Each structure stands twice: as C-alpha cells, then as structure tokens.
C-alpha cells in the first residue's frame, strides 16, 4: 500500500480517476516539503494562503515537491497576465491580446522574435512574478506581525499558524508562553496534520534567518521563508530538500533512474499506465537535455540549483530557444506572428480558432 500511495501522489490526474476508491482506502499523501493536502482541507483557506509557503512558485521550473512545473512556459511568457487567458474566455479577445504581446516581445520591430528578444521578455515576466510575491508578502508579514515591530519570532508564527487551523489563538499563545504541551495530536485528524507541518516548517524558518542569526525574521527574511526563489541561501535549501526526497542511495546526487523512478506493479489500468509513461518521458527529457548540464548522467545539487534559479540569464536564453523551437515551422530560429498564434496553446494555455485569418491586417 505504501508504494501505491507514492505513485498516485505523483499523478494527480490518476487520483481524480480513482478518487472514490482512494478516499476510502488511503490517507491524504504529501511529502514533508509539500503542504498542499493540508491547505486543501482547510474550509477557509485564506489564512493558510497568507502565512504558509506556497507549494507552487510562479516562474520556477520545479515544484517544491520535485514535480516539474507544467505551467512554466506560460508563466514566463505571460507574467502577471496569465489570468487573462482563461480556457473559457473569448478566443477573439485572447487572439488580440496575444498579438499585442507579440509586438512587445518584438523589441526591434522587425516582425519576428529572436532568442535574445525572447530571453529579455522572459526575464521581464519573471521579474513581474517576483514583484507580485513581494507585494503579497507585505500582507502576509502583516498577518503574522500584529504588533508591527518589524520582526516575527517562531513562537509568534506558530500561534498564527495554529489559529489558522482552528485552534483558539489566545489559548495557544498562553500555552506557548508557559511552555505547555499544545497537544495538537489529540485533536481531529485534520488538526493532527498541523504538528507534522510545523515540524517541516521549523527548519525552513531558521534557514531563512540570515546571519548573524537572531531567531527573528524581518520582512525580507519572511519573504525568503515563503518564497525561497528570492534568496540564494533558501534556493539551496529548497534544492537540498528535493534531492533528499528523490535520492535513493544517499550520495546527494540524482541519477536518471532516481529522477524518474516509480514503484513497480502498482498501475491498475491502461489509462493510468499511459499517464505513468508520459510522466516518465517528460522527466527523462528534462533530466537529459536541460538539468544535467554537463551530460554526465548525474545531476548534482549545483546543477539543480542553476536549473531552478529563475533569474539565471543563461537559463532564460535556453528557455527562449526551446520555446522558439516548438513553434518555428519555417526553421529560421525566430518566431513570426503566424507561428505564435498557431501554437497559442503552448504559450498561453488557450487555443485560438482561425489563427491565421487576417493576421497581417490585424498586426
């Protein structure tokens, strides 16, 4: 059963296919670095989103739990405009918006987008995600720093966290002040998860405390706690956590087999097998062509850190070349408007109809 839990955790689509069965046979499954299960069960969710590190980081290639970010291309192409391209939105409006984006990416106005122009655009959009995180962090920090002294202790954070899980804030604060046992494990199963999450967050909290360590987080350090991509030290910590979860032989490196490993004998139907096969192929391609920079069959922590650094200009150039290659039908290593409209689903997640109709007139 343990192996079965692991494979279905890696494939959320498969979970949806067998939800009823899993609901009655399994506990919610989550890695220590991933609090998504806990957040999904919170009836309000608002406080969690304010003070819990998010599982998903916009503009970062890998999720906190080691999964590849399936929306990465769209995030670094659209930036904060992602929400404007909804699946059910009006295709003609989306088409017009995409044409406007093309004209902005085409910096030299030669009606084609080069890799350098796309690189520049990717860096701009990534910076938008960074600024959005900074803006949200101000609200999050205010939520855990009610006295407004500009610093938050671990105990203050614990109080706010447990209050967001349904515990009485005054009672929790009093018990922590008096060093009393909180006894969270004696509460409901949902509340018992809180202690497990707190343990996983504690190390992360102190990692975010920049030297000289004072056991307090200011607003910038709290930003690194919530968004490790904003700090080189916390990015290293995030990489260390991912490698720890995937490394099977304890050498602190990843082989291809470790990166794509799946428990054997747990796939129960062909549709689930197809999902497994696609998942393995995608990770194998990313490992061999992108993450393993020197192509020696081993991914070190340094290589994974460079891969995950959203502000790495070399990575942005490689991403630009990959994005162009997907839609570059005339093989001129640039993108024309017709190509980007035809492959709109890749760039925006929204499929446009009659993509080439009157394109020159509208452009």
From TrEMBL:
<dbReference type="InterPro" id="IPR027240">
    <property type="entry name" value="CAB45_EFh"/>
</dbReference>
<dbReference type="Pfam" id="PF13202">
    <property type="entry name" value="EF-hand_5"/>
</dbReference>
<keyword id="KW-0479">Metal-binding</keyword>
<feature type="domain" description="EF-hand">
    <location>
        <begin position="93"/>
        <end position="128"/>
    </location>
</feature>
<dbReference type="InterPro" id="IPR011992">
    <property type="entry name" value="EF-hand-dom_pair"/>
</dbReference>
<protein>
    <recommendedName>
        <fullName>45 kDa calcium-binding protein</fullName>
    </recommendedName>
</protein>
<dbReference type="GO" id="GO:0005783">
    <property type="term" value="C:endoplasmic reticulum"/>
</dbReference>
<feature type="signal peptide">
    <location>
        <begin position="1"/>
        <end position="30"/>
    </location>
</feature>
<keyword id="KW-0106">Calcium</keyword>
<feature type="domain" description="EF-hand">
    <location>
        <begin position="239"/>
        <end position="269"/>
    </location>
</feature>
<feature type="domain" description="EF-hand">
    <location>
        <begin position="132"/>
        <end position="167"/>
    </location>
</feature>
<comment type="similarity">
    <text>Belongs to the CREC family.</text>
</comment>
<dbReference type="GO" id="GO:0017156">
    <property type="term" value="P:calcium-ion regulated exocytosis"/>
</dbReference>
<dbReference type="GO" id="GO:0002040">
    <property type="term" value="P:sprouting angiogenesis"/>
</dbReference>
<dbReference type="InterPro" id="IPR018247">
    <property type="entry name" value="EF_Hand_1_Ca_BS"/>
</dbReference>
<dbReference type="GO" id="GO:0005509">
    <property type="term" value="F:calcium ion binding"/>
</dbReference>
<keyword id="KW-0677">Repeat</keyword>
<keyword id="KW-0333">Golgi apparatus</keyword>
<feature type="domain" description="EF-hand">
    <location>
        <begin position="279"/>
        <end position="314"/>
    </location>
</feature>
<keyword id="KW-0732">Signal</keyword>
<dbReference type="Pfam" id="PF13833">
    <property type="entry name" value="EF-hand_8"/>
</dbReference>
<dbReference type="InterPro" id="IPR002048">
    <property type="entry name" value="EF_hand_dom"/>
</dbReference>
<keyword id="KW-0325">Glycoprotein</keyword>
<dbReference type="GO" id="GO:0005796">
    <property type="term" value="C:Golgi lumen"/>
</dbReference>
